[in-house]
Amino acid sequence: METLALILAGGKGSRLDILSQRRSKPAMPFAGKFRIIDFTLSNCTQSNIYDIGILTQYLPLSLNEHIGSGKPWDLDRRDSGVTLLQPHNYWYLGTADAVLKNLEFIARRDPKYVLILSGDHIYKMDYRKMIALHKEKNATLTIATQPVPESEVSRFGIMSINKDGEIIEFEEKPKKSKSNLASMGIYLFNFDLLKKVLLDIKQDDLDFGKHIIPHLIKTTSKEVFAYQFGDYWMDVGTYDSYLDTNLAMTKDYTELDLYDPTWKVYTKSEDLPPVKVGSEAVIHNSLVSNGCVIEGSVMNSVLSPGVRVGKGSVVKDSVILNNVIISTDVTINKCILDKKVTVGRNAYLGYGDDYTPNIEKPDLLKTGITVIEKNTIIPGDTMIGRNCRIFKTGVFTSKVVKSGSTIQ
Question: Which CATH architecture has domain 270-408?
């Protein structure tokens, strides 16, 4: 085998708060019918990489059920396929530690190259181009890179390269940097080098950005190059980025084309009937998935499969996940509703001009987004302000929930 792909898919996504309580970040729904990990899996099969190990950890059940045998991505093959790799005796303590604990699996496959990928980014990439550069440069490690705004450098591993594209400096999450070339968390290793460096550096929390890459950069005999990727790439790790990136898919022009027939994004689809649009329904700039029934108005929003919007109701600037029931005369403005939420008639979610940050989580909710947990029932005639967190166990003692509140 030439290339084995390892997808790191165990991330908790703690900044997604309510949404990541019962699922890992790669399992988060996106753009209606997809999951975030679908993009990485589709990139693999579109790049003719069919031997894949998925390293899961945090709440893997939802992800495991979604991937199954890998059939939607053509991974249920006799001579290759997808393998779910969960920690057994010990928890994965770092990105490189997760790979180290699965060295036996990798050795059985005996690949020439190991492509290490993140399962929680939105992008389309032909990995064959990166592999071709790796071979051309006679590299032992190639890192996919992307320029980021200077204000964002503290979130990434930042590197400097010479005129040949060789990485000469690397710093993990610097406060300031003279470079803005960021690691995308995509690494192509020669397997013999990967095995050696993992075994040489003995550290419990072994991490590629903190330990492995800086070590190799300092070892001048190791050829480490940058593959510069210039297309769309997004990390949807916060409420703001999750909502904004979803809503960006509704625009007339989108940087990420979900409808490109030459590079399809595959997913596990539910067998649901077509979208039904009622006689009084209005839909503008929205993604509406299969099984939805729309009798009200949907504007600049994303609806996942099985959502119902009752007569007289308005959904605006919001993301509504699977099987949410929105009764009649409801208004939903700039909200994220997790699966199987029920909203009673004449309720208003995201009302008013009070943008008080959430009192318990001001760093997570301060731009006006209100988030409702899975399976929550919102009583009729309830008004919920902005920057609110509503849990299914919450007790509504008043018909008005002020902005910045948490009902738990």
Answer: 3 Solenoid (2.160)
